[in-house]
Specification:
1 helix; 27 strands
């Protein structure tokens, strides 16, 4: 018998010992998070609701967390604990796992019972511990994917949210899904499930967690399993301020110059300008002027702006334009309502004569309110 087999037998034997000390296995992702219930298997204990609960590591119980508060999420660095007053269990949440977290922990009631927790942190999966940032405007609908390993295709998928110190469940693949819900979770049991957040508001700003329900093995848990949740992806949603339409006035036969400013994270994304949601110009080259008939665009990545110059304006150019950026299935944009006027305040064009090598002074008359147009996305 090998040494490894001996260790396994000893571990299983310890887990089966009856009495005050029990143990169970929890599996997490490196870079991800994990949530589990610390269970009291002794059903005779029913009057310990006000006793302190704890979760900790090593003999000095550090690092860890403890509380004597009920129905309140308690936070200590990466550890969060919630005791709802149920004498049978309390909830532990650990965020941003690393291989250093791998090992044996203890959770329980300070005076009545305790259990050993064997935390195993995996790092080999390509879908493990992914973290992304997404942005959306108020009123938009956003969809994102959560990838998982093939072995989890029949497991229950979940969506949680970290809201302040609390960790809240939003939806599950076992729940009925309605297109009218705020949070929609759709699982095709292939290699990912999708999450849709409808009608985004400022209150939706925060961190969302995609996870799978599992027990100590990779097989789907049974109804009697002591399950836990392995969170495999973290999405930080940034809700951008509401952008109202901007009106710009220009003049027939003249030109107009508009700049659209983008958030820092989208500087390198490909931009576009479209007219009345139909005539779209994609900006495939960056940091140079690109002509499209009388429309010239310049994606200035250093400044984070898209510059748009439209010359030889006519009445047909009066329309609603949108500066945007492609983000997965979503298009972030701001509207510019261009109004074309006759331009009575302008003088007729005139000629100036200059000599090569010398300087020339030009005068440009314009209505004071049209000195500059700038919109922000």
């Amino acid at each position: 018998m090998t040494a490894a087999a001996t260790i396994t037998i000893i571990f299983i034997t310890l887990c089966l010992i009856s009495g005050q000390v029990l143990c169970f296995k929890v599996i997490g992702c490196s870079g991800g998070s994990v949530m589990f219930k610390c269970m009291n298997s002794n059903q005779r204990e029913s009057n310990d609701q006000l006793k302190g609960k704890y979760f900790c590591r090593n003999r000095d119980c550090k690092p860890g967390i403890s509380t004597e508060l009920l129905r309140r999420w308690v936070y200590n660095e990466r550890y969060t604990l919630y005791d709802d007053g149920n004498s049978r269990f309390f909830t532990v949440f650990i965020r941003n796992l690393s291989r250093e977290d791998d090992g044996r922990y203890t959770c329980g009631n300070n005076q009545k019972w305790s259990r050993d927790v064997d935390l195993r942190v995996n790092k080999n999966s390509s879908s493990c511990g992914t973290s992304v940032i997404r942005s959306a405007y108020i009123g938009q609908t956003i969809t994102f994917s959560c990838e998982y390993e093939h072995g989890f295709k029949t497991h229950t998928k979940v969506l949680y949210r970290v809201h302040g110190d609390a960790v809240l469940v939003l939806n599950s693949s076992q729940s009925s899904q309605s297109s009218e819900e705020k949070f929609i979770l759709s699982d095709g049991q292939k290699d990912h499930f999708t999450v849709t957040i409808r009608n985004i508001s400022a209150a939706d700003d925060g961190v969302y967690l995609c996870g799978v329900e599992r027990d100590r093995a990779d097989k789907p848990p049974s109804k009697k399993s002591n399950t836990h949740i392995t969170f495999i992806k973290e999405i930080e949603l940034k809700v951008l301020r509401q952008i109202t339409s901007v009106q710009v006035e220009a003049y027939i036969s003249k030109s107009v110059f508009i700049t659209c400013e983008f958030p820092e994270e989208f500087k390198e994304n490909k931009k576009f300008i479209e007219k009345d949601s139909s005539q779209k110009i994609s900006v495939d080259e960056q940091n140079q002027w690109i002509p499209h008939d009388k429309v010239h665009v310049f994606d200035d990545t250093s400044a984070g702006v898209l510059k748009v110059f439209i010359s030889d304006l006519t009445a047909a150019d009066e329309a609603t334009y949108r500066c945007g950026v492609n983000i997965a299935d979503d298009h972030l944009f701001t509207e510019i309502k261009l109004k074309i006027s006759q331009g009575d305040n302008f003088r007729e064009s005139s000629e100036s004569v200059a000599v090569i090598g010398e300087s020339v002074k030009l005068s440009c008359n314009y209505p004071e309110k049209q000195a500059a147009h700038q919109t922000h996305l």
